[in-house]
Amino acid sequence: MDAIKTIAYKALDIVTLGRGVERNIGGAHIKFPARWSRYYEAEYEPETFAFFRENVKSGDTVLDIGGHIGLFAVVTARLVGSEGTVYSFEPTPFTRSVLTEVVELNGLSDIIEVRSEAVSSKSGETVFFDTGDTISNANSLVKTERSKTEIPIKLISVDEFVKEKGIAPNCLKIDVEGVELDVLRGARETFLTHRPVARLGLHPPFIMQNGQSLEEIWAILEEYKMQVVFDGKPAEKDWFCSQPALFDVNLLPF
After folding, report:
1. Whether this model's pTM surpasses 0.70
2. What is the pLDDT of residue 11?
């Protein structure tokens, strides 16, 4: 079956002259390589699309932390336009190659800069855990029961990257499979100085496996004076800290 699919995708690449297959995801028309054109459902993460459309404007700088194959890098790049920049971080080599191809297919290479580092609390070198599944969205700095191989990678913090580039981020997307607290710890000056908004994906089981907690994440967001919003309403601490499974929140400075 896999061989048949591979042949079919190669044929589709030939038919489309390698220009990708256009999909309408969340109201955004985006081209993907034929092999990955059916990865997302048409109504994927509507709240995330809404957040970016409400909060990202022309000329902004966006940090896409956990870029995967580039869906939200493309969405935010179109919002920031030619005067803005999106930095998309994707440590997994093969996934990053697909991300780069998606950026090129959509004509956004001048706006999106693809980065190979994993974002954490500080710079350094470590290993990234790969599930072995092609373009998996569960690869992480946290070793889990799904981890199969280790990839040597470089680490960088948000604050170090911001200082190195001399930028002032307006928006962060953080989707890092369990190292949310580490990313936030490494972004202290950015949050306190530049006051960006953020879309934060939280993975409680991976956070626990990383020896950390939602309580610690709530505390650091309070320190940074960031309001946590879920489903359009301010979240309560007890609710936030008791979530057992993946959930996403908006972070708004106050």
Report:
1. yes
2. 62
Query: What SS3 state is found at 103?
Result: helix
Rounded to whole angstroms, what are the CA distances from 12 to 31, 98, 119? 13, 17, 36
- The C-alpha atoms of residue 146 and residue 222 are separated, in whole angstroms, by 33
8, β-bridge pairs = none
| Residue pair 200/174 in contact by the 8 Å Cβ criterion | yes
Rounded-to-integer distance, Cα 90 and Cα 70, Å: 9
Contacts of 56 (CB under 8 A, 6+ apart): 62, 76, 79, 80, 170, 171
List, for residues 114-141, the tens digit of each pLDDT value. Answer: 999 999 999 999 999 999 999 998 999 9
- Cβ(146)–Cβ(138) under 8 Å? yes
Confidence of residue 38 (pLDDT cuts 50, 70, 90): very high
The tens digit of pLDDT for each residue in 21-36 reads: 999 999 999 999 999 9
* 3-state SS assignment for residue 115: strand
Q: How many Cβ atoms are within 10 Å of 68's Cβ, its own excluded?
A: 22
User: Parallel, antiparallel, or unpaired: how do β-strands 233-234 and 21-25 relate?
Assistant: unpaired
Residues 39 and 124: their CA atoms lie apart, in Å, by 33
- The sign one gets for the Cα dihedral 124, 61, 181, 145 is negative
pLDDT of residue 3 exceeding 90:
no
CA distance 102 to 77: 12
